[in-house]
Amino acid sequence: MLAAAAIAPAIVSLPAQAALSVVGTRFIYPGGARAETITARNSGSTPLLVQIWLDDGNANADPSGLRVPFVVAPPLARLDPQHALAVRVRAVGDELPSDRESRFWINLLEVPPAGPADNMLRIAYRLRMKLLYRPRGIDGDPRDAPDRLTWTYPDARARPVLVSKNPTPFYVTLTRVVLQGRPVVLAGGAVDVEPFGRAEIPLDAPPGPPADDIVFDAVDDGGRPREHRGRLDAH
Description:
Blueprint: E1 3-4, E2 20-22, E3 26-30, E4 36-42, E5 48-55, E6 70-73, E7 76-79, E8 84-91, E9 102-111, E10 125-134, E11 150-152, E12 161-165, E13 172-179, E14 182-184, E15 191-193, E16 198-202, E17 214-219, E18 225-230, E19 232-233
Parallel strand pairs: 3-10, 11-19
Antiparallel strand pairs: 1-3, 2-4, 4-8, 5-7, 5-9, 6-8, 9-10, 11-12, 12-16, 13-14, 13-15, 13-17, 17-18
């Protein structure tokens, strides 16, 4: 089964009680795996029609026009009340980078059936969760990646930003950042620092002198936020 990892934000149009759920909130697809399984459940009292697809970052893309190196089976399924559905995800092709993780999103869209002569508005419920493809043999340990982040403040910018650079081949998902005792607002509730990349986090005000005073949470492979500490270095 896919390893459940960090909590990722779901795009949801919420009814009062959503019947569709997924075991796990973010998933790791290990390189070399023939296929992996995600389990969806219907906790409601009526059947559900569930559409399933993957995208590469565009949440609004038409699923029929997407080209991603994965296939899902089934792409459309009926899910009866109090039943589970095994969704198989299989990698196809070999075009993904072999030296770093690649990020995709798995989508599950629930459309509740309309009853006879039903004039009520029916709201679709969508879950969108992160899927990371982790190639075999990439250097390093994902558990060490958060502690290898570097933090700088480029004070020449018109607007203050905190820059985090990631020298590792692993995605690092930040769910909390506290700079010099002040919580930093993260857009969407979380920020991904890409492999060998950087993330710019807007600040409300410039920070003080560099010091060992950055505290942040990064989510581990088991889905738990772990606290780490960093240093704000001179740019």
